[in-house]
Specification:
This protein is α+β, with helices and mostly antiparallel strands and 245 residues long. The strands form two sheets. Strands 1, 2, 3, 4, 7, 8, 10, 11 and 12 form a nine-stranded mixed sheet that branches. It is globular. The N and C termini lie far apart (55 Å).
């Protein structure tokens, strides 16, 4: 009987992926920021070691975009300049798709960290994923979100995401649940100094790149004004490139 080694299997899988790259799925993540004196803190959580994707790494709350999120009622819309950035670049991102991406970041932040971004008020929806906002009387709000980076997973990966990194301030959080969110996606959710997170935390390379870019932007624009330049990272002809949206 012929014995096939793991290395041979991996090689076959790599060849198959190179020949038929998986189409990246929309994903959204939220970088929540806070000020403590002259220092800026960032919220991060550690992925469980049992996860197949980035086990044990510190990441921001986030996940795959649900297109149905575009229908969720909000207290405020995306700032026009932010919507313009989100709909720019490859992929034919419509305003509805941009809205779904932004709302997915808010929903994931609730589910993984127990933080509800929005305004206090009556909110109703039959969608199960948003019942936390119903129970706590929070209307999701988009106006404060800032689009700060976009990155597409390289073609030779088993899982690929077209991820939009959005940022908001802790002041934009209407409710903070003391026991965190209803899922167990993240553990050890902590506020880390941004500079320390970028240089010392166990984080994916792209997360480090995004944090370093955000640190530079905050040094030039401490309030994160709407419509700022957005770096877009992806692999083009086997070269890692950085474009500006």
């Amino acid at each position: 009987m012929d014995v096939v080694t793991k290395a041979e299997v991996d090689k076959v899988e790599r060849v198959a992926l190179d020949a038929n790259p998986i189409r990246p799925r929309d994903a959204a993540t939220l970088i929540l920021l806070d000020r403590k004196g002259d220092e800026i803190l960032v919220l991060m959580g550690r992925r469980h070691a049992r996860h197949a994707f980035m086990p044990g790494k510190f990441v921001f709350p986030g996940g795959r975009t649900d297109p149905a999120d575009s229908h969720i009622r909000t207290a405020t819309a995306l700032h026009p300049d932010e919507e313009a950035r989100l709909t720019a670049g490859i992929g034919r991102t419509s305003p509805a798709r941009a809205r779904a991406i932004a709302l997915s970041a808010i929903r994931e932040t609730y589910e993984e960290a127990g933080l509800l971004i929005g305004q206090k008020g009556g909110f109703a929806t039959a969608k199960r994923d948003w019942q936390g906002f119903v129970e706590h009387g929070v209307i999701p709000s988009l106006q404060a979100l800032r689009f700060v980076a976009r990155a597409i997973t390289p073609p030779n990966r088993v899982r690929r995401f077209d991820t939009r990194f959005l940022a908001a301030w802790r002041d934009d959080v209407a409710v903070e649940l003391p026991d965190g969110g209803p899922t167990n996606e993240l553990e050890d959710v902590v506020w880390l100094p941004l500079a320390k997170a970028a240089r010392q935390a166990d984080i994916p390379d792209i997360t480090r790149t995004v944090l370093e870019g955000l640190e530079t932007r905050l040094a030039q624009d401490p309030l994160l004004s709407p419509g700022g330049r957005v770096p877009f990272y992806r692999l083009v002809r086997n070269r890692f490139v950085r474009e500006i949206l």
